[in-house]
Amino acid sequence: MRIGILGAGQMAEALGSGWARAGHEVMVGARSPEKARKLAEAIGSGARGGDLRAAAAHGEALLLAVPALSVGGILTEVGAADGALAGRTLIDCTNAYEPDAFTNAPNSFLLAEAAVAERVAGLAPGAGVVKAFNVCAAEVWTSHAGRGLGVPLCGDDERAVEVVAGLVSDLGFDPVRAGGLSRARYLEAVSVFVVGLWFAGYDARQMLPPLQEAFAHSDA
Ligand SMILES: NC(=O)c1ccc[n+]([C@@H]2O[C@H](COP(=O)([O-])OP(=O)(O)OC[C@H]3O[C@@H](n4cnc5c(N)ncnc54)[C@H](OP(=O)(O)O)[C@@H]3O)[C@@H](O)[C@H]2O)c1
């Protein structure tokens, strides 16, 4: 599949490397095409680099791998408002973290915005927006393949969700179909909440019982 990546940072590198190795045609796009080309070179496996518009035009599936605050400008630049991304799968991995001014603790975050993925869908008419890959750190996507890690997906466009499920599997993770785009805001909240636990030294998995024990048994 042709995959366009908007952004040339940590998430672009982590996910782009895995997809390129899996045989996908990856093109990285950034506001600095030179930086995008350098990252593409580091990714290897035939990955290419260019500007944001070129990467957007290339991808049947697109990964939005930029700060949440910049998605509006970037989607405008690639013509999303005019329908340039219609029919494409648009993966949103962003988190709108901001420092928690109340506690002022280092590594303590809140969300600056409650529902980035829903805003992205509004900015890209016709695109199949799927929230994915936002919960774990970039390095997890390169180090935990094949270890049964689930990747929750939220999106309204079933075809796009299936595309992303395939891309999750290609990286060695397990797709978890977690509902429509209106639930993506919960994934965004899960991310900031769980990251807070991790920074505080807790294993977030400790909060959750196994599936078989998630609900009380009936007396019948
Ligand atoms: N890193 C993680 O562990 C992680 C995990 C889950 C989700 N996320 C989310 O994934 C997204 C990307 O994170 P990242 O860690 O890959 O970030 P990053 O390493 O800082 O890279 C961000 C990319 O976005 C570009 N960018 C920033 N502002 C821009 C603007 N106004 N216009 C155009 N391009 C702009 C940067 O370009 P320049 O290089 O030119 O500045 C860079 O290519 C964020 O929303 C983050 O919350 C990150």
TrEMBL record:
Alphabetic keyword roster: Oxidoreductase
Pfam families given in the database record: F420_oxidored
Domain Pyrroline-5-carboxylate reductase catalytic N-terminal: from-to ranges: 2-95
Entry-linked PANTHER family: DUDULIN-RELATED, REDUCTASE
Record-given protein name: NADPH-dependent F420 reductase
Source organism (scientific name): Nonomuraea guangzhouensis
Biological classification of the source: Bacteria, Bacillati, Actinomycetota, Actinomycetes, Streptosporangiales
